[in-house]
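Input (structure):
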């Protein structure tokens, strides 16, 4: 499968979806075998996904950006986004 990034690395969103899917499957497996309390992990994953959709950042995206220098294919990086904004005084 081809990736549409300049350096051949997966964009941040693709890694986040893979991480969320893995954590969801893991939490369901643990809930079935160990304890139903592991379903709280599934809820946490869902909340983080909505946080990323609404705000453009979540704890996992922050860690992935800083640790692995991943870039978003959708959202501009915080440094570039701040540079584009201009203040209007009335």
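Output (sequence):
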């Amino acid at each position: 499968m081809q990736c549409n990034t300049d350096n051949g690395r997966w964009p941040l969103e693709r890694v986040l979806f893979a991480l969320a899917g893995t954590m969801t499957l893991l939490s369901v497996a643990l809930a079935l075998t160990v304890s139903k309390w592991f379903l709280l992990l599934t809820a946490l994953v869902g909340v983080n996904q909505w946080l990323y959709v609404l705000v453009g950042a979540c704890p996992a995206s922050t860690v992935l950006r800083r640790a692995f220098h991943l870039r978003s294919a959708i959202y501009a990086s915080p440094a570039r986004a701040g540079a584009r904004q201009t203040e209007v005084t009335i």
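Notes: Confidence is low (pLDDT under 50) at residues 83-87. The CA atoms of residues 71 and 77 lie 7 Å apart.
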